Amino acid sequence: MTEWLLGHEATVRLGIFLGVLAAMACWEWAAPRRRLTLPKPGRWAGNLGLVILDTIVLRLLFPAAALGMAAFAARQGWGVFNYFAAPSWLAIVICVVVLDFAIYLQHVMFHAVPLLWRLHRVHHADLDFDVTTGLRFHPFEIVLSTLIKFAVIAVLGPPLIAVMIFEVLLNAGAMFTHGNVRLPLGLDRLLRALVVTPDMHRVHHSVEEQETNSNFGFNLSLWDRLFGTYRAQPAAGHQAMTIGIRTFRDPRLCARLPGMLRIPFLGRGPDYAINRRGRS
Description:
single chain, mainly alpha, globular, 14 helices
């Protein structure tokens, strides 16, 4: 099983990625939540171009990816679950939940530290909110996020199948939670008791500082509730709220690949970094 996972990791993840992307694109076409402000072809070209660049960078730097790190930790005997025996099902559940919590903490950190926020605001500078928003991250942020993930894997010593499940959930969840899709309000309330929904995460992409610094979860919604970062709805409502960052409104910068790569190096202030909350 270990050899099969290591040999087919890229193929499995690519197949699921394309399937979820196609499904979300069809859902957005059939039942959009908001009217987009920019033409979709040009904006998607920029966002998906960034995805391709990120993928190339990661495969060059970390060809074995997270599964390779888990296999290396197992060979070295690193991590809690390589030291203490536990039933496979329990190890898988605990590791997936802990990795999800680590992503929540990492997300908060990228909002709290001004230098990291400069990288992360590439994601927030999208002037619209749809499935491709969940995929646009600066290559420097992607590399740093991968190193953080590797550190968590080294400490946990998770089974390879747990890492594969988490990677698939993280990628598919990012596309779902950023979907420009309409869910019945009753179903949305039911789902967000456990998982992050598009309406819940859309609040996080508001230009309003207090809303940007809320709803940090990617998959499980309980972290925001536990740590007081949950906000149910945007003050202006989902139709009227403004998406993005106040200081980055030029489509040539926010929706084209060369402009997105420049965003971390522009401006003097950290915009909405958490440690500036309430300041003028």
